[in-house]
Amino acid sequence: MSGARTSEADEAESLLSAAAVRERCGVVLAAAERGETPHFRVAPERLAAAAERVVAVTRRRYPDLNVPYHSRWRHFGVGGIDRAALIAPGADRGADWLERARARIDLAIVSVLLDAGAGPVWRYREAETGAVLARSEGLAVASLRAMQQGLFSSDPDNPWRADAAALRGLTADRLAGAFQHGPGNELAGVEGRAALLRRLGEVAGDAPQWFGRPARLGNLVDFWARSTAVPDAFGRRDARGPGEVAAPAILRLLLHAFGAIWSGRLSLGGVPLGDCGRHSNVPGDGLVPFHKLSQWLTYSLVEPLEDAGMRVTDLDGLTGLAEYRNGGLFLDTGCLVPRDPELPKQTLDPFAEPVVEWRALTAALLDRLAAEVRGRLGKTAAELPLAAVLEGGTWAAGREIAAELRPDGRPPLTVASDGTLF
């Protein structure tokens, strides 16, 4: 029996990686190309049209083709306002680079974990600018303003932090108030979002090796600075500053550090698998990992780490994000066609096989679409990594075509959200 548990734990460990996302989603795509998938068929002849749309959107948004990474930091700057400059205002009074990095990582983690679908009616009115924002941009700005007001900090003199003590005590009512949730302006999954942040506080408090004592999310930068520092001739690892870390290694740590926050998800050998579903085309246990929010978080930590002097490598070791804008692009351009024409009229459980199949095909097709886009733009993978293709890009194109086809801009499939997945 212990041998079986060990084997399961080893498999679980392998599934907690971007490589597993790419490999298992590739299995589903190969089945689709053989005509064996039960819910969608692939129309490869439509990939060129999808690529042309992404190219057009990319050229319009970034005419010089100097495309930044797809990350939460793009949303903080909506409307051309540099809200990131507000973070850690003590910087202009001599705060060091490490404290600025901690504050930026605090915000990125909380904001990304709150970045599940807001729902069709929710809006956030930013008092400071008068801007009325929806969806991801609204959630981003709301989370930044909530942090500015100290919602995630237990230190009243230092609002720009997210620490375990404050997160553990966060109520749904306080989160709802900060996000202006109420009748006629309902934010989907408020209870689930608050519960997720409470669990986040609990796991951070139980992992001082990563989050320090007292536990704070941004202390991750201290961990990476210590573990990657280049030693000097005397072996001192803090003498020359931080070194380099691979993006897939960042993801792996996040999956281990935060795995326990995903309540009710699949586990294997006692190891939580996070954002992972099952599909009948995958041999054996059928498990298909996606790690959408964790990969989105990894992308969003790159800039704070780079600003702190670290070098983040192997960004293309991550995958595309299996979420409704990227997935909607493939459905709305005809690259994916539901076998059941009634499927778009249904409200689907996020772990139902049709949704797992849609997400798996999305993640796998994003690699192929990226190659098509680069070819049309005359860029290499080094010049236009997957993170830039997503930003340029696929996510914006998915949103744009959704707005063209449906009055409220909703995605082509309706997936029930508990506020912690999409």
Polypeptide structure, described:
This protein is mainly α. The chain has one domain (2-415). Helix content is 48%, strand content 7%. It is built from 16 helices and twelve strands. It has a two-stranded antiparallel sheet. Strand 7 (276-278) and strand 8 (287-289) form a beta hairpin. It is globular and about 60 Å long.
Topology, element by element:
Layout: H1 2-15, H2 18-33, E1 40-42, H3 47-61, H4 72-76, H5 97-113, E2 124-125, E3 132-133, H6 135-148, H7 164-168, H8 172-178, H9 190-205, H10 208-211, H11 220-228, E4 244-246, H12 247-258, E5 267-268, E6 271-272, E7 276-278, E8 287-289, H13 292-307, E9 311-313, H14 324-332, E10 336-338, E11 347-348, H15 353-377, H16 386-405, E12 414-415
Parallel strand pairs: 4-9, 11-12
Antiparallel strand pairs: 1-10, 2-3, 5-6, 7-8
